[in-house]
Amino acid sequence: MQLDELEKTINQLPRKRIGFYPTPFHKLENLSRTYGINLFLKREDMAGPGAISGSKMRVAEFVIGQALEEGVDTLITQGAYLTNSGMQFSAAARVAGITPILYLTRDEQQHGTLNEYRGNLLLDRLMDVETHYLSAPSNAFKNVKEDKQHVLDAMHARKAELEAEGHNVLIVPTGGALTAGFVGHVMTFKEIIEQARQAGVEPDYIYHTTGTGTALPGMLAAKIMTGSKVKFRSISVSFYQPDFWINEAIIVERVKDILRTFNADIPDDQSILDEIEVDNRFIGENYATPSEESTAAIKEMAKAEGVFLGPVYTGKGFAGLLEHIRTGKVAPNSNVVFLHTGDTANLFEVPGAAGPTSIIDQ
Ligand SMILES: *Cc1c(COP(=O)(O)O)cnc(C)c1O
Fold this sequence. Notes:
The protein has two domains: 3-54 and 179-348, Rossmann fold; 56-176, Rossmann fold (3-Layer(aba) Sandwich), CATH 3.40.50.1100. The chain has 14 helices and ten strands. The protein has helices at residues 3-10, 29-35, 56-69, 84-96, 108-111, 119-126, 145-164, 179-182, 184-198, 216-226, 248-261, 269-273, 292-305, 314-326, and strands spanning 25-27, 38-43, 74-80, 99-106, 130-135, 169-172, 205-210, 231-236, 278-279, 335-340.
């Protein structure tokens, strides 16, 4: 299948256009020189509608497109207190005239009590989002079933309340992980390949940070459908493992769902699994706790290129890429694309995002 054919199918699906697409794509000249590779950045962080955005906007466009067709007027979603997804879904819902509601969890032992609106919480507040805070010791990192149930129960209770008042309510799981949304990142892949070709290169690797597994399925399905040779390398911020809420087998099922939407041939599970390479070594101490490598990676990107990565996702993902380059897992002269999935607001949320001396040195 050709790249253009992907778009034809996509254009038939319900979608509310909210972001600014195609997102920019550009070479990082200084880092490319430093590391002897061709390094490009794909800017999902600039997807809009606000200056602070990310990879969930593409997902939201399709989820909300379908929700509008179904007459939904209220969207409830959840996430860790600093959720990028919750912020982007709230923005998208506002654009679509749907009321957003957030259920946010916080591991107070790990991240302290909330005493100030910062980062995405501040942006959620500016959008006047009804926000409920729940204590959840597991945060997004561990697999504590009671914590998950507690959040689900609270969302469903609110949904029932609103339905009794005559509202049509959609619950969107963490990260926007609904089938309708996964097709969004088919377009990310299409744009990357086309923009890379305009720059005169065929990408060898696409690197990205993965958590809830919403960006990879669409990109990987597009790769399979177009027969591209590019390899995906996913640096995780949540441990991908069997029996966990996210793992490679779940990605395979999502890829197959997308292939079905496109009426494309479905390869056997093992050949899809072979395309997935998740590196769990860069999570650090915990989800949303800056690691030394991620802080260094954020600073290196900012200093070399004037681009800002975030401390929860993209700093860790980029730290993974830098390690792969330094250890030869990325061969010299390779064409590498790093997907900047967003996370910018969290620079203004997570203490220590700029290292131990976040207080101005006297
Ligand atoms: C959600 C998110 C991710 C992880 O995305 P998935 O594709 O859902 O695994 C990465 N980076 C940022 C900034 C995010 O908000």
